[in-house]
Amino acid sequence: MAVSDYQLIEAWQEVLRLSKLEAGQTVTLLTSSTTHPQTLQCAQIAAQSMGAIVNRLDLLPVNAEKALSRDSLAYLGTTPLTGNEAAIAALKASDLVLDLMTLLFSPEQIDILKSGTKILLAVEPPEILVRTVPTEADRARVTAAAALIKAAKEMSITSPAGTNLRCPLGEFPAIREYGFVDEPGRWDHWPSGFVLTWPNERGTNGTIVIDKGDILLPQKKYSTEQIILTVENGYATKIEGGVEAELLDEYMKSFNDPEGYAISHIGWGLQPRCHWSTLGLYSRENTIGMDARAFEGNFLFSLGPNNEAGGNRTTACHIDIPLRHCTVSLDGRAVVRDGNVLDGGVGEYE
Ligand SMILES: O=c1ccc(O)c[nH]1
């Protein structure tokens, strides 16, 4: 449903408050041709109402001749910032960047964060933003879950459909996504509310069964049949099934990059205000599918890059696959059981 400017301005003011924006600080809104006009307008008003110096940096789109999907998270690595020193300088000189165009997984984003600039990604439509305004409780819950990952040596995942995967941990940090940027140099994504990490390089082995109803992103579809991934030494070595498997496999082959088959981030959803069924209510063009990535109790795994976590794999192919009904365990202790977050992971929502 449509939202009023007033409602969206209030939502932005809350997110900027949680992000500790102070009067006199510089906020730069990063936009492109896909930026939602109401989101831009209300973010500018909210930031200015809080006494910030507000700039806008509009960048031209890239990758049209390479990407097959229009989804901003589908083709990664090069962005309008690549080689754009003037734009990078402006963002490094800002206290807070509101990314309304998607820099995610870019070396430039990592470079800008290192300067202490905070970056908040927000590209879902206004009504999803308003429904998922983050809270301190989101932050506390995600932080507690990340501490469990930090202490663990292995994440294992099983499901009634036949998933049986073991992921050694320790080489990469646990990443918290809770929807606001309250520390210098922090990146986050509004909406979110999930925790993730990366398995040790070449360490993951087992089988992943993408079952009927599990979601493929950027395809933005619920699989209508099982797709079976064989994972050996950190890479999906076989993709088996029917036409769904063929569709996934051909799409991945189009990148002509073996690194796209690597297991990327793994984790689980903790956002009760996001839902598995929401994707079915939107056309592909109108959402990047954050409800699917954040709904409480999913097991979200990804194929492709690990540079976001400090790794050196920057493949352009990035696929996010949230699964239902999984049991996720850390060192043998379940944190999610059959798609329900247990108190260990961290279950009860205040
Ligand atoms: O917020 C995000 C979005 C996509 C992704 O792969 C990770 N986190």
UniProtKB/TrEMBL annotation:
Highest taxon of the lineage: Bacteria
Keywords, alphabetical: Metal-binding
InterPro entries: M29_Exopeptidase, NicX
Entry keyword DNA repair: no
Protein name per UniProt: 2,5-dihydroxypyridine 5,6-dioxygenase
Transmembrane segments: none
Lineage: Bacteria, Pseudomonadati, Pseudomonadota, Betaproteobacteria, Burkholderiales
Organism: Alcaligenes ammonioxydans
